[in-house]
Amino acid sequence: MSEDKKEIETNNVDDARREFLKHMGIAAGAVALAGSPEAEAATFQEWFQSHYELMSEEEKQEAIARLETRYTEEYEKKVTVSGAPALEGVLFGYALNIQKCIGCRTCVHACVQENNQSRYDPEIQWIKVLKMEKGSFSADKLDKGYPETERMGDYGLQVGGNAYSPAGVSIEDAQRYYEPEQVPEKDSFYMPVQCHQCEKPPCVKTCPVRATFREPNGVVVIDYNWCIGCRMCQLACPYGARRFNWGEPNLPKEDMNPKTHYYGNRPRMRGVMEKCTFCLQRTREGRNPACMEACPVGARKFGNLLDPQSEIRQVLATKKVFRFKEEFHTYPKFFYFMD
Asked: What is the pLDDT of residue 187?
């Protein structure tokens, strides 16, 4: 990208965000809430820094140094913030064996620990596991329709008795909150859902300040310091994969994972969005996502979609694969499969 073009894009993005902050009065409020002169200066610098992608290398290093200093003091441990770029020649994809998943939520808890998610008030989890029960039609419900009594018949003239029962396995009747004594439960199937890292992400298109965007390796990321908290991306996501920090996140010092990435698991703040990033602080170092490593039944597969020999490519070539909500044409890189 030429310097002239980069300068024009920088000005456009900067102007959009500053115009929003001016009308909302957020900028003034942020500085007013700061305490000491040092804290006030740091707050000012963070709120008015440019979009990370449009910074010079020197500005990026200064931004990272500020964050490392603040996090180290706040959590009383040495915290690193990586700025490692997206890997070249890689397009990350994920596949989940819905036939193997037992609904234990081990992946959920591993994700929370790895990615420094708020533990309570608000409690934030990037992965949700949906429980689906296998249903059938019942003769006992034939006369349980609506209305119960009608001159033309008492069998449910408008609504049949089996109308609200799941037929087979239906996502429409899925439960997110379940607390069984043991999993898997009889006649139950489980479907974990997280960010699907779409090739045509609607969340990116709706962001008015380009705080969220798709990187070259296919992962959709968020610049938390650039996010204005309008939640347009959350409304646009058909998978319900984005989380908003309504309050100040609660992350105990002893639980904080000190190895972070600017676009990944570094601590977030009140009023910004967050979501799954395929654990980019790990995958950019050649490691697998935490949820994949934690799965006790090996239901999760991850890898480079451009490598014909990768495990995920083998899954796509040999298994019964489907994408969730294909009708939205977002072309997700998160796949579900069965043996």
From this structure: 87
Domain 77-96+196-338 falls in which CATH fold?
Alpha-Beta Plaits (3.30.70)
Structure tokens at 76: 């009383």
Whole-angstrom distance, CA of residue 238 vs CA of residue 241:
8
Task: Provide the greatest CA pair distance for the chain.
Answer: 81
DSSP string, 14-71: HHHHHHHHHHHTHHHHHHHH--SHHHHHHHHHHHTPPPGGGS-HHHHHHHHHHHHHHH
Mean pLDDT value of segment 46-68: 93
Q: Per residue, what are the HEC states of 129-188?
A: EEEEEEECCCHHHCCCCECCCCCCCCCCCCECCCCCCCCEECHHHCECCCCCCCCCCCCE
Q: Given the structure tokens 């300068």, which residue do they identify? A: 7
Could you read off the pLDDT of 229-277 as tens digits, one per residue?
Answer: 999 999 999 999 999 999 999 999 999 999 999 999 999 999 999 999 9
Q: Whole-angstrom Cα distance, residue 192 to residue 103?
A: 8
Closest CA to 262 of 57, 69, 67, 56: 67
Q: What residues are paired with 320 via a beta bridge?
A: 338
Distance CA 244, CA 238 (A): 16
Beta bridge partners of 80: 259
Q: In which element (H, E) is residue 12 found? A: helix 3-24
Count of CB atoms situated within 10 Å of the CB of 6: 13
Q: What does the alpha-carbon distance between residue 97 and residue 332 come to, in Å, rounded to a whole number?
A: 16
Strands 243-244 vs 273-274: parallel, antiparallel or unpaired: antiparallel
Task: Tell me the C-alpha to C-alpha distance, in Å, between residue 270 and each of 91, 121, 179.
Answer: 31, 12, 29
d(CA 260, CA 43): 20
Long-range contacts of 153-162 (CB under 8 A, 24+ apart): 162/137, 162/138
